[in-house]
Every structure is written in structure tokens, then in C-alpha cells.
Design brief:
Blueprint (H helix, E strand, L loop, with lengths): L17 H4 L4 H16 L6 E6 L7 H14 L4 E5 L7 H4 L8 H5 L5 H4 L1 E2 L5 E4 L8 H5 L2 H10 L5 E5 L8 H6 L4 E7 L5 H13 L4 E7 L1
Parallel strand pairs: 1-5, 1-6, 2-4, 2-5, 6-7
Antiparallel strand pairs: 3-4
Helix pairs in contact: 2-3
Length: about 220
């Protein structure tokens, strides 16, 4: 069972968290600008559920959303990161936490939220890891339990950010996208093909998701 202990400085991976370790850097300023744009595009009167995805794997979306979450927490918002990538989860590695329990335990009713949430070293930033890799990720993410969970968590957080699987690779993300208030698409310079970025936009439109913008990585 995971206890709600904050991760120590010695065990955290520093590399991805530019906004935390180098808050005065130009790159940190860019994340603050992204956050400002999100606030402008989405109402601040209600809790925001924001999905961050990409057309393909390897576009850097997990690093992008982790830094965005830190930037939001620094602005005194209570933020929850949820790893909904039930195929190749990564967020627990960023925080050097266990992935032995997490989201899948909540969706199957094995554990409650208080037993699986990680309170990270970064003040106001919590993490819900994916948990054990299931045999039926599409069914779990598309279940009423997932929808009800997001509604319930809105009572406790100002912002909920979901890390997802690559949009064009698997159907998982399409199911979740429509449940969120907004979707950010991460595109990697020199890697993402124009046709894939265009197709990703069409997929989100078909899923009736609200695409609020795209982030060009690198």
C-alpha cells in the first residue's frame, strides 16, 4: 500500500522539472505563458480538467505536462496529475514513486483515493499514478467509474491534468478526451508529421473534445 508521504529531494529526478528547479529561467517563463493562455481560454470559475496528449509516442508530452502542473502549483492552485496512460505509464518515474497501486485500483474498487494518491515534494501538487497495467484499459477508461471519479475529484482540486496515451496509436485517449474541459496537443518539432497533426485534430473533433491549443515542443 502506498502511504501519503512526500518524496525526498534525494530520490527525485531533477531533469524534467525545469519550472521547479529553475523557476527564473526563460523556459520556466514559457510554461507560465502557456498557463496564462490556458486560463484565458478556459473559465477559471470552475475546476479545470485538462488532458495533454500527442499524435505519436515520443513527443515529450509527459515532460511538458509535468512542468505545466508545477507552474500551476506555484500559482497557488491545488493540482492533481493523473497518469491515464495504462499502456506505458511514465509519471511515477518522474517523481520516483511506486506504480504498484494507482488509478486502476480506484476503477476496479480495490482501494480508495486516500490510499493511492502521492503528495509530492512540490507543494499543492499531487500525483495519481496509473497503477498495475490492466488487461482491459479501454473498458476501464471508458467506464462510468472513470467519469464519476473525475467529477468527485473536482471537489478537491483546482486543476486536474491527465497524461494519456498517444492519440493516433490507441483508442484510449479518444474515450477520455470528451470527459475533459479541454485538450492540449503536444507536437514535436522535426518529428511530428503535418498529416499526423492534422489527423489528431480530426480525431479530437470526432470525439467531441474541446481542443484549446497546441504546444510546439523543442
Amino acid at each position: 500500500m502506498i502511504t501519503n508521504k512526500r518524496t525526498s529531494n534525494q530520490t527525485k529526478r531533477k531533469a524534467p522539472f525545469v519550472t521547479y528547479y529553475y523557476p527564473e529561467s526563460a523556459l520556466a517563463d514559457q510554461f507560465q505563458m502557456i498557463q496564462t493562455n490556458i486560463n484565458f481560454l478556459m473559465s477559471e470559475k470552475t475546476t479545470q480538467t485538462l488532458m495533454v496528449t500527442s499524435p505519436e509516442e515520443g513527443d515529450g508530452k509527459s515532460t511538458m505536462l509535468a512542468n505545466l502542473a508545477v507552474s500551476m502549483a506555484q500559482q497557488k492552485k491545488k493540482v492533481l496529475l493523473i497518469d491515464t496512460n495504462l499502456r506505458t505509464p511514465a509519471l511515477h518515474d518522474f517523481f520516483h514513486t511506486s506504480n504498484s497501486t494507482g488509478l486502476t485500483d480506484l476503477l476496479t474498487g480495490r482501494m480508495n483515493f486516500g490510499e493511492v494518491v502521492h503528495h509530492t515534494e512540490i507543494w499543492r501538487l499531487d500525483l495519481l499514478a496509473s497503477g498495475p497495467i490492466p488487461k482491459n484499459p479501454v473498458e476501464l477508461l471508458g467506464s462510468k467509474m472513470m467519469k464519476d471519479l473525475l467529477v468527485k475529484l473536482k471537489e478537491s482540486y483546482d486543476v486536474i491534468i491527465l497524461d494519456s496515451s498517444a492519440l493516433l496509436k490507441l483508442p484510449d485517449t479518444k474515450l477520455l478526451a470528451s470527459l475533459c474541459d479541454g485538450v492540449l496537443l503536444v507536437i514535436k518539432s522535426g518529428k511530428t508529421k503535418l498529416q499526423n497533426a492534422t489527423e489528431a485534430k480530426k480525431v479530437l473533433e470526432f470525439a467531441k473534445a474541446r481542443l484549446i491549443g497546441a504546444i510546439l515542443n523543442q
